[in-house]
Design a protein that fits this description.
By secondary structure, the protein is an alpha+beta fold. About 25% of the residues lie in helices and about 35% in strands.
C-alpha cells in the first residue's frame, strides 16, 4: 500500500509503503544515537525498494477541513522530534522509499497498473497496517475482494 506524497510532472513522484512494518523501532535501529527522546519508540516500516540504506522520517497530519492527509518527508532527526511534540502529527520512520522518474507513474496509471484511493484519517494507524492492503483492496468490488481474501500461499487454502 503506497502513499504518494509528492508528484510533479517534471520531477516525478515519491511514495512510502505503509503496510510493511519492519518489527523495529527507531531506538532499536539506531542504538548508538543520542537523544531519541520523542522518536525512539517510532515504528520503522519498509518504505520501498529505492535507497534501502536510508532511514527516512515522515510526519503525517490529517486535515479534516479538506479531508486530506499531509505528508512531510525526509525530516531530520530534530525535525522529527519537533513534529512528534505536535499533538496532531503522526511520525513514522521508513527504510527506503518508492520513486518514479518523469512520466513513469503517469505511464503506469495509463496502463491501469495502480488502484487509487484517497486516504482517510486512520490511514497511517499502526493497528491497521497489517490488514491495510486487504481492507482497502476489498473496497474496489467483488473480484478485488476475492483477491484480498485469497491466501498468500494457495497451497494452504
Amino acid at each position: 500500500m503506497l502513499f504518494i506524497s509528492t508528484h510533479d510532472l517534471e520531477e516525478g513522484a515519491f511514495g512510502l509503503v505503509l503496510n510493511r512494518p519492519s518489527g523495529q523501532t527507531v531506538a532499536e535501529l539506531l542504538p548508538n544515537h543520542e537523544d531519541l527522546k520523542e522518536i525512539g519508540s517510532v515504528p520503522v516500516l519498509l518504505g520501498g525498494p529505492v535507497a534501502r540504506d536510508q532511514l527516512i522520517f515522515a510526519s503525517f497530519i490529517w486535515h479534516s477541513d479538506g479531508e486530506r492527509m499531509e505528508c512531510r518527508h525526509h525530516l531530520s532527526v530534530e525535525d522529527a522530534r519537533e513534529a512528534a511534540r505536535e499533538n496532531h502529527s503522526i511520525i513514522r520512520a521508513f527504510i527506503g522509499y518508492a520513486g518514479w522518474g518523469k512520466g513513469q507513474l503517469e505511464g503506469e496509471l495509463a496502463q491501469h497498473a495502480w488502484l487509487i484511493k484517497a486516504p482517510d484519517e486512520e490511514f497511517v494507524s499502526l493497528d491497521r497496517s497489517k490488514n491495510l492492503w486487504r481492507e482497502l483492496i476489498s473496497t474496489f468490488g467483488p473480484v478485488f475482494r476475492l483477491t484480498a481474501e485469497a491466501p498468500e500461499d494457495p497451497s494452504k487454502n
